Amino acid sequence: MKKFILKISIIFLFLLLLFRFTVISLLNEYEQKLENYTSSTKINELKNEFIDFMKKNNEKENILDQNDALVLGTFIKKILNELDIKP
């Protein structure tokens, strides 16, 4: 009976350590990544990148390709029709 309890204890300890070093470590890693993406500095950085992208595209004569403009225009017209909004 002592050997059985000792073996079960060792197996339980091993499984506990395995769980700790795999699942918990992965959760901590993803939690850290999530905190980095939702931090105010990261949000401001993404906002500034987006504004710079918009400024650069506003300087272009044509922002969209012919095909993209056609698809986007059709999509917007369908949304306006569903909402009963006249352009």
Distance between the termini: 83 Å
Helix percent reads over 70%
Main beta sheet strand tally, sense and closure: none
Instruction: Indicate the overall shape.
Output: elongated
Beta-strand content estimate: under 5%
* Rg calculated over all Cα atoms: 28 Å
- pLDDT averaged over residues: 88
Uncertain regions spanning at least 5 consecutive residues: none
Please trace the helix and strand order, writing H or E for each element. HHH
Number of helices: 3
The tally of strands reads 0
Structural class: mainly alpha
For this entry, give a set of tags.
87 residues; mainly alpha; 85% helix; 0% strand
At a glance:
Helix content is about 85%, strand content about 0%.
Q: Overview of this structure, please?
A:
The protein starts with a helix and ends with a helix. It contains three helices and no strands. With 87 residues, the chain is mostly helical. The longest helix has 37 residues, at 2-38. It has a domain at 2-61. The chain is elongated. Helix content is 85%, strand content 0%.
Q: Which secondary structure elements does this structure contain, and how are they paired or packed?
A:
Layout: H1 2-38, H2 40-58, H3 66-83
